[in-house]
Amino acid sequence: MFDYDLATIKLYWAKTEQPCATFDALVDIGYLDAPASKGHHLAVKGGLVRHSMRVTQHLLETRAVPEVSAYRIGMYHDLVKCLCYKTSEGGGFEYVQPPYPGHGVASVLIADDLGIHLEPFERAAIVWHMGAFGLDERQMEEYKASLRKWPVPIIFTHAADHLASVQEEVEAKS
Ligand SMILES: [Fe+2]
Ligand SMILES: [Fe+2]
């Protein structure tokens, strides 16, 4: 579906308007090699960046957030996946607990570690990109509070991520 080569990836990264050093920092933590999942969608080397570009594309199509934010949210929403999958002896991937809690929260913290700038609503969209899936009662209250403040970025980011994941699973089975 997408041109997937270094030049295109760099084009997407450039649209996120970050300091030059952040691209090398992303490469250093395995951004170009990480899978998008352990065994579901795009569980292959390079799966993460392909998934991220697809989410970016869907978010751009919605016009729900400014263009630069669509690129930032799409390209950085799953940064945690750079740290939580390692190649297993059998050739697949195994899960490793990253040093930060959560999924979206961890991605925001890793972006911060790399010197990537995110606006508050971009952070919120990344934090809650899984929607309400798997939230306990307390987290649900936190989610609703964020939704009240940034409803459009949060809901459309979740929709873009969910749509991309479903498409990738369908493609994997065809
Ligand atoms: Fe995710
Ligand atoms: Fe995702």
Give an overview in words.
This protein is mainly α and 174 residues long. The protein has one domain. It has helices spanning 6-14, 21-28, 47-62, 67-76, 81-84, 104-113, 120-127, 137-149, 151-173; strands at 85-87, 93-95. It has a two-stranded antiparallel sheet with strand order 1-2. Strand 1 (85-87) and strand 2 (93-95) form a beta hairpin. Helix 3 packs antiparallel against helix 4, helix 3 packs across helix 9 and helix 8 packs across helix 9. The longest helix has 23 residues, at 151-173. The two termini are 14 Å apart. The mean pLDDT is 93. One fe (ii) ion is lined by residues 78, 103, 129-130.
What does this entry show, briefly?
The chain has helices at 6-14, 21-28, 47-62, 67-76, 81-84, 104-113, 120-127, 137-149, 151-173, and strands at 85-87, 93-95. The protein has one domain (6-173).
Q: Main β-sheet: number of strands, strand sense, barrel status?
A: 2 strands, antiparallel
Tell me, rounded to a whole number, the average pLDDT: 93
Tally of extended strands?
2
Strand content: under 5%
Radius of gyration: 15 Å
Strand order of the largest sheet: 1-2
Keywords:
single chain, 174 residues, mainly alpha, 9 helices, 3% strand, globular, binds fe (ii) ion
Q: What secondary-structure arrangement, pairings included, does this model have?
A:
Layout (H helix, E strand, L loop, with lengths): L5 H9 L6 H8 L18 H16 L4 H10 L4 H4 E3 L5 E3 L8 H10 L6 H8 L9 H13 L1 H23 L1
